[in-house]
Structure formats: structure tokens, C-alpha cells
Protein: Dihydrofolate reductase
Amino acid sequence: MSTDASTSPASGRILIDLFTSLDGVAQGPGGTDEDTSGGFRFSGWQAGYPTEGVGSEIDKGMRQLDALLLGRRTYDIFAGYWPHHTDGPEGGIGQLFNRVPKYVASRDADIALDWEGSTRVGGDLAAEIAQMRASHREVHVIGSLDFVHTLLAEGLFDELNLWVYPLLLGAGKKVFDDNALPAVLRLLHPPITDEGGVTLLRYGRTDRTPEVGTF
Structure:
């Protein structure tokens, strides 16, 4: 019988939200200068594939969060954008991001975090995430792929939400690298696919590991 390894109803959850191509590339989806490391040619691929159905599901998920947990690169992008976009169509999300606590994963104990409500984490990540679960209902990790690799390697998440685009990008940083902790995930809800072929998959972590056999 599958055992859900996510936290109890009385505890908060850590949710990872990623855009990915069909072949698992999650590098630099949002802009042409977001992440071109390693010679990546397709930074901005999500912005280059606009589709109507994604926005409503993202907005619905964002309305539930009461804290952000971000890698340093994503934090810098967000901090340079959202404080200045609190009006118009994006205003609600901008106001929300400005208001909620923001935890920033960094090995640099001396980093300057000027966005109000920002706190560095990374000294003892497991203990710090346990404290986040005790303090918040939903902590969302958005983008932050390098940091996500750490969370996947250490099993420090409760839900993995993947927006899968019908694109093949070839080379690029993948959602899962070779250090991901072997695990059996549980599909939490039926997949949602919009008119552009983008499919939302929501998985919960369990305490099961893959078993092997022979057919």
C-alpha cells in the first residue's frame, strides 16, 4: 500500500512549481537572458510558447501560498521585477509576493537581501524547512532549478507540480539530475491539459522507493 510521505494536515507543505519541456528541460523558461549558462540556446522558451490555459492554473496555485522559498538566481529576478509590478493584471501576484515571507537559499552568509521580508536559509536546510512547515501552510518553490535539485536529492518537498510543454529542447538543465533521491511519486489529481497542449501534473512524495523485478 502506498504511503504518503507528505506532512500531516496540521503541518505546512513544501511545493515545487516548475515549467518543463517534454524532454525534461527546465532551464531559463521565462526570458531570453534568464539562464544561458552552458551555452543554452533556448532561454525564454516558455515565453515563446504563449498559451491561454496555463495562467489560470498558475494564478489559482499562487493564491494559496503564504511563503516563497527561492534559489538565489530566481530571487534576484523576482526582487528586480515584482516590487515594481503591483498594479494592472499582474498586481495581485505582485502584492502577494511583496507581502509574504521570502526564504532565499544561499551558501553566502553575507548576501544582501533588500526585498522586504527576505531571509537567508541554507545553514541547516532540513531544520529550516521543518521550521517553515511549522510556520506556514504552503511554501512554494518557483523555478530555482539548481536549488530544486538539492530538494529532490534530500527529499525535502511534499508536492511537485510540473507544467509540461509539448516542446523538445535537447540539451539544457533537466528537472531531475543524477542525484535525485529514488522515490515513487503519487499522482494527486488528474492531469489538466489546455488548448496549447500544456499539461499540468501534480505529484505527491511518498516514502516508497522503486522496486525491481523481472517480467
